Amino acid sequence: MARLLDGKAAAAEVRAEVAEGVAELAAEGRPVRLDVVLVGDDPASVTYVRNKQADSAEAGIESRAHRFPDSVSQKELVALVEKLNGDAAVSGFFIQLPLPGGLDSLDLISRIEPAKDVDGLSPQSAGRLAVGLPSLLPCTPHGIVQLLRRNGIELEGREAVVLGRSNLVGKPLAQLLLRENATVTVCHSRTRGLAEVARRADVLVAAIGRRELVGAEHVKEDAVVVDVGIHRRGDGGLTGDVRFEEVERKAAWISPVPGGVGPMTRAMLLYNTLQAARSAAGG
Prior knowledge:
- The chain has helices at residues 7-27, 43-59, 74-86, 105-110, 123-131, 139-149, 170-179, 194-198, 244-248, 261-280; strands at residues 3-4, 33-39, 62-68, 92-95, 159-163, 183-187, 203-206, 224-227, 231-232, 238-239, 253-254.
- It is of the alpha/beta class.
- The protein has 2 domains: 29-112, Rossmann fold; 139-262, NAD(P)-binding Rossmann-like Domain (Rossmann fold, 3-Layer(aba) Sandwich).
- It has a 6-stranded parallel beta sheet.
- α6 packs across α7 (170-179).
- The radius of gyration is 19 Å and the shape is globular.
């Protein structure tokens, strides 16, 4: 029976470390502030922003939300991004995605200064990650690496298979795993013999966005399995990209849904905000 990769416990550790760092900066007269741009009233986005603000408050980070109706123009949002870029009081900021139709999210994200890009999603941040330059790392991939590290799981020299090639998770995670000296294979919808390739993995990350696609046939004995997916079941509960009960009997470690990768994603946003504040302070 697999051991759980407890994202809640690991995230609590990260938040405590961030709170300590924030307190140190505050004592030097350098408060930390995280801003968010929220467009529309999508319930999931509103809830997510509310949770991020609660996390910020717990860590001693000031948080401000800039809310706009669906009718906001691209020009207005560009102006706000430029304003936040130039505001020394703002340690970092992010744009809550997805945006309503008619707005160009890539254009807006591309305008965020890399030093304030706490989501780590801009093309500039992605490029810096790819070539090994210092950057704020995308929260979900970095959260996955931290989750593995904090459970004592060695990555160096191990074979890692990432299911999914999205800009949000799959591609940047492959880069981070390479930094950890893992041997990395990225699979996608055109991969032939997916189960056979997945079974090579010492560390298997399911970020393919298909509910309960990954079963025991994809997992070798005693593998580490990280489930990034999150899907709503008919009974209102949540499930991931992995058939948990089936894989749990075969893997050595497995992350649950919920309570695995999700809490780490939120915690790494705070971590990035602190890093941005430290960099601005010359630390």
